[in-house]
Design a protein that fits this description.
71% helix; 191 residues; mainly alpha; single chain
């Protein structure tokens, strides 16, 4: 019963659509009608309001940190259930007919909650890839792949969860992958 409560509460926290809420409240717009139509931080930046974009990023990170850290310290055996549930909440939010974001910011919150080093590996990999390419999508894919690679090579750690997360992030970016392949992907301005 505990794991069901943990899974449901983590999902519900993860499913809070901050990008949708912030653009609705402050810009009186529906973020799903802007840019890619995605509710995440990258698309929130496309509203032209950088503060809104960064606020979405921080809130999407935080909504994963809260349940995952709570479970880490109180029910450590269920940390991956809480992590996956928060991620799935963001990608498939009940409030928006299960059409949400791509889960990257939420995954960052998960990584930092599980292990600071994993969070740093993601951020550094993302930043280096973005500096070279200016593609947020490519940076997210490379960074999410670097986490299990690091664990396999340097930690000899069970990386199954992190491989699953890479597959899920690849899935949420499948349209971006097509655009990258066809050289049609839009570069992202983060400042």
């Amino acid at each position: 019963m505990e794991y069901l409560i943990i899974a449901l509460s983590s999902y519900l926290l993860g499913s809070i659509p901050f990008g949708f809420i912030l653009t609705r409240v402050f810009l009186k717009k529906d973020i799903r009608d802007i840019g890619s139509g995605n509710i995440g931080a990258t698309n929130a930046l496309r509203t032209g309001n950088k503060t809104l974009g960064y606020a979405t990023l921080l809130l999407d990170i935080t909504k994963a940190i809260l349940p995952v850290l709570y479970v880490k310290f109180n029910y450590p055996d269920y940390i991956f259930i809480a992590s996956l549930s928060a991620f799935l909440g963001h990608v498939f939010p009940i409030w928006l007919k299960f059409k949400g974001g791509k889960g990257v910011a939420t995954y960052v919150g998960i990584l930092f909650s599980i292990n600071l080093i994993l969070g740093l590996i993601f951020i550094i990999s993302w930043a280096v890839t973005f500096f070279v390419s200016k593609y947020s999508s490519l940076s997210s894919l490379v960074a999410s792949l670097m986490v299990p690679i690091y664990l396999i090579i340097f930690e000899n750690y069970n990386s199954i969860f992190f491989i699953i997360m890479f597959v899920l992030i690849f899935y949420t970016h499948r349209e971006n992958v097509k655009r990258l392949k066809n050289k049609e992907e839009t570069r992202t301005k983060i400042y």
